[in-house]
Specification:
Elements lengths: L1 E5 L2 E5 L2 E4 L10 E3 L3 H32 L1
Antiparallel strand pairs: 1-2, 3-4
Length: 68
């Protein structure tokens, strides 16, 4: 996965290197950029990011409440 920033957005470029090379003697990866497996991984990563964001927000709210 590669991460890029564009203004206030974070852009993830995901591909899975799980396929064997298409031809004998190939040294480069043969990546998958779409399909069910990639979509499932995107869904899993989104869920993790949302959980992490929620945890950070809850900690921030609790910290602010304790100070106030």
């Amino acid at each position: 996965m590669y991460v890029n920033y564009s203004g206030d957005k974070i852009i993830f470029n995901l591909h899975l290197d799980q396929k064997k090379p298409s031809y004998v003697g190939a040294h480069k990866h043969n990546a998958e950029y779409e399909g069910e497996i990639v979509e499932a991984e995107i869904k899993r990563l989104k869920s993790l990011l949302e959980e992490s964001r929620d945890e950070v927000m809850n900690k921030a709210e609790n910290s602010t409440a304790k100070k106030g």
